[in-house]
């Protein structure tokens, strides 16, 4: 009897999921950011200058894991999902060696201003000139989505950096934001309870940034339970390892984050609610220096660091023309929010997102 009841409940859940997936034809978007990841590491793979610098502790291990026989092989070894999936099924922008440029429009060139630009579609150097925990006066595209019937209470954000509740302004926007060392709350499943336990027991490397594996799995469990239509995930390890001068950990973290995104895409493509109706937009909040000299030091970014304004964008989704790596052209970070708004068909009288959406066709 118990077995029959269990089979009935499983069948009912499956049918309900299928019906809900068929009823809701509005597209879904996952906006994903990797903090402080340079375009060079995405498009050219292992940086041999940094490999042979003071920032690398275990050169042999990095060579074994990430150095092949060509630039193309190197970058694929570092980010296999980007180059085996996105490069074949989506679009990649920012390889400056091929004339493809993506730049910030804000002049601060560090995290809060960068995330504000990505999320709101405009730079705000007047009000946002630090990483302090001040509530953002600007309205993000996440908040815009949450204000409209099609996406009301179907927006969620997860971040490794604990400043994100302020960047997204969770109090005003009403968007649930799990960031920093926050635990999952509400009616928790077994895995969420376990994540809460081990997050409190795990060593704290940075006081304001948790390890990305927690951010990822908190997000994934929430997605599996609630099926939000707009999800923002911000991975943060890469920037903190770079600031610490740990090139080994930076490269391994970049490789791991690529795998986390691949895991999320695999789930999305095997879930009836998301399959064939979901976009991934992936980018970074700023670049960083390209060497060991003070004005271009790899560990740093900001107005006094050459190249910190250079970023990149990757896009994957059902109506994205699979052109792969794009050559000559200029994009800006402030085009990301308008692109997301166009995909979702959001309505707005606010002219802040006046930048042109990225052409996906």
UniProtKB/TrEMBL annotation:
GO molecular function: catalytic activity; metal ion binding
SUPFAM superfamilies named among the record's database cross-references: Alkaline phosphatase-like
Boundaries of every Metalloenzyme domain copy: 219-347
Keywords: Signal
Entries under Pfam families matching the protein: Metalloenzyme (PF01676)
Matches recorded under InterPro entries: Alkaline_phosphatase_core_sf, Metalloenzyme
Signal peptide span: 1-21
Protein name: Phosphopentomutase/2, 3-bisphosphoglycerate-independent phosphoglycerate mutase family metalloenzyme
């Amino acid at each position: 009897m118990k077995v029959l009841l269990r089979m009935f409940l499983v069948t009912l859940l499956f049918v309900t999921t299928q019906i809900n997936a068929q009823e809701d034809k509005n597209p879904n978007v996952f906006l994903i950011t990797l903090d402080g990841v340079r375009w060079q590491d995405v498009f050219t793979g292992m940086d041999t200058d940094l490999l042979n610098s003071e920032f690398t502790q275990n050169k042999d291990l990095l060579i074994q894991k990430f150095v092949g026989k060509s630039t193309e092989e190197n970058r694929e070894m570092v980010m296999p999902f980007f180059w085996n999936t996105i490069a074949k099924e989506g679009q990649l922008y920012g390889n400056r060696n091929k004339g493809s440029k993506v730049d910030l429009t804000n002049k601060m060139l560090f995290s809060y201003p960068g995330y504000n630009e990505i999320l709101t579609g405009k730079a705000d150097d007047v009000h946002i000139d630090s990483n302090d925990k001040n509530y953002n006066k600007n309205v993000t595209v996440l908040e815009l989505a949450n204000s409209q019937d099609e996406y009301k209470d179907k927006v969620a954000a997860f971040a490794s950096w604990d400043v994100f509740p302020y960047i997204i302004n969770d109090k005003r926007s009403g968007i649930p934001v799990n960031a920093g060392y926050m635990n999952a709350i509400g009616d928790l499943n077994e895995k969420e309870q376990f994540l809460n336990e081990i997050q409190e027991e795990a060593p704290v490397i940075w006081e304001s940034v948790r390890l990305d594996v927690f951010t990822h799995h908190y997000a994934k469990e929430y997605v599996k339970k609630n099926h939000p239509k707009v999800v923002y995930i911000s991975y943060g390890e890469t920037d903190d390892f770079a600031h610490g001068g740990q090139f080994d950990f930076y490269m391994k973290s970049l490789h791991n984050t690529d795998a986390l995104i691949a895991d999320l895409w695999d789930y999305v493509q095997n879930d009836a609610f998301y399959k064939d109706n979901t976009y991934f937009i992936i980018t970074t909040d700023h670049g960083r220096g390209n060497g060991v000299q003070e004005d271009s030091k790899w560990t740093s970014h900001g107005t006094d660091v050459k190249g910190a304004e250079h970023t990149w964008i990757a896009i994957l989704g059902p109506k994205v023309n699979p052109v792969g790596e794009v050559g000559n052209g200029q994009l800006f970070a402030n085009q990301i929010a308008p692109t997301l708004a166009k995909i979702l068909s959001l309505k707005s009288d606010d002219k802040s997102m006046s930048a042109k959406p990225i052409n996906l066709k």
